[in-house]
Specification:
By secondary structure, the protein is an alpha/beta fold. It is built from eight helices and 13 strands.
Length: 279
C-alpha cells in the first residue's frame, strides 16, 4: 500500500513477493511527478508471517517526521515516521465526514482514537465536548498538537489506557455521551481468532451502548476482512439485546474510492461501518 501526503509517499510492503521487487517499486514511485520523498514503513507484524525483517527507511529523497494534511475542513499533524501504519487512515475519510453531520452540540466519545481523526473532526463540526481514549501516549500527544492547529483544544480531553478498562471506569463514573465512535484495530487478524474476535466486537459495542444517552448515536466500524458486514451488525444487535437497548441503522459506510474493491479478491472489501441510533 502507498499513501500520499503531498510530495511525500509512504509505502508498506507486507509480502515476500513484493519485497523482491522493492527496487522497482522505489524507481516507479520516485518517478511520479512532484514526489520529493519516499519512505517505507515496513514495521508491521504481518511481515513476520512472510519471514521478512522489520524496518523503517527513507528510500528516496528526504522525508520529515510529520506532515500536515487537511481532511473534511480539519487540519492534522500526521506522524508519518512514528505513527501507526503509514501515519494516517485515509480509508475512513468519507465515514468521518458522516460523523460531522451528527456532531453539532453533542458530547462525543472517540474510542481507539489514535491522533483524533474522528474526535477532532467532531469538534471542528460543532461538538461541545470530545473525550478521546487510546493506549498510546505518543498518539495522544499528536492529538493535542492537531487540536491546537484547529483551535479546539478547549473542547478536547483524553484518557490513556486499555479501552475496555477505560469504558468500565466511565460506566462506574456514570458518564454519558450523545455519540460514541468505535474504530478499533482488527480484532480478527487470522481465522483462528474468529470466535474470540467476534466476542470482542460484541463486548466493545455493548460497553459503548451503555454510555449512550437514549437515542444516542453509535458509529461502529471494523477493519478486519475476516469479519463480514453481517457479522458486525449481528455483534451490534446482540450487544443491544444484552442490555435491553434497541438499534436502528441510519447509515452504512465502507472504504473510500481511493481504496477500491477488486471483485475477485474479497479480502479487499475489508472496511465496514454502521451509524446506528440506540434507543
Amino acid at each position: 500500500m502507498v499513501d500520499r501526503f503531498g510530495s511525500i509517499l509512504v509505502a508498506q510492503v507486507t509480502t515476500a513477493g513484493m519485497e523482491r521487487h522493492r527496487d522497482d517499486l522505489v524507481a516507479a514511485l520516485a518517478a511520479l511527478p512532484g514526489i520529493t520523498g519516499v519512505q517505507f514503513r515496513n514495521d508491521t507484524g504481518s511481515r513476520d508471517l512472510e519471514g521478512l525483517e522489520s524496518y523503517v527507511e527513507t528510500a528516496h529523497g528526504a522525508v520529515p517526521d510529520r506532515v500536515e494534511i487537511m481532511e473534511n475542513e480539519t487540519r492534522f499533524s500526521v506522524p508519518i515516521s512514528g505513527g501507526q501504519k503509514t501515519g494516517w487512515f485515509y480509508d475512513h475519510r468519507l465515514n468521518r465526514a458522516r460523523l460531522r453531520r451528527y456532531a453539532p452540540g453533542s458530547r462525543v466519545l472517540d474510542l481507539f482514537s489514535y491522533i483524533g481523526g474522528w474526535g477532532i473532526q467532531a469538534a471542528t463540526a460543532g461538538a461541545r465536548e470530545v473525550v478521546c481514549v487510546d493506549s498510546s501516549a505518543s498518539a495522544l500527544e499528536e492529538l493535542d498538537r492537531s487540536a491546537a492547529l484547529n483551535g479546539v483544544e478547549q473542547k478536547m480531553s483524553s484518557r490513556r489506557g486499555d479501552v475496555f478498562d477505560v469504558l468500565a471506569r466511565l460506566r462506574e463514573e456514570k458518564e454519558r455521551f450523545d455519540i460514541v465512535v468505535i474504530d478499533p484495530p482488527a480484532f480478527i487478524k487470522r481465522r483462528k481468532d474468529q470466535k474470540q474476535g467476534e466476542k470482542a466486537y460484541q463486548k466493545i459495542n455493548r460497553l459503548a451502548m451503555e454510555l449512550l444517552v437514549p437515542d444516542g448515536v453509535l458509529f461502529s466500524a471494523s477493519c478486519s476482512h475476516h469479519l463480514t458486514r453481517d457479522a458486525l451488525l449481528l455483534a451490534m444487535l446482540r450487544a443491544g439485546r444484552e442490555i435491553g437497548r434497541d438499534l436502528q441503522i441510519l447509515e452504512q459506510g465502507h472504504q473510500g474510492p481511493d481504496h477500491p474493491i477488486h471483485p475477485a479478491i474479497p479480502e479487499t472489501e475489508y472496511l465496514k461501518a454502521f451509524t446506528a441510533r440506540i434507543s
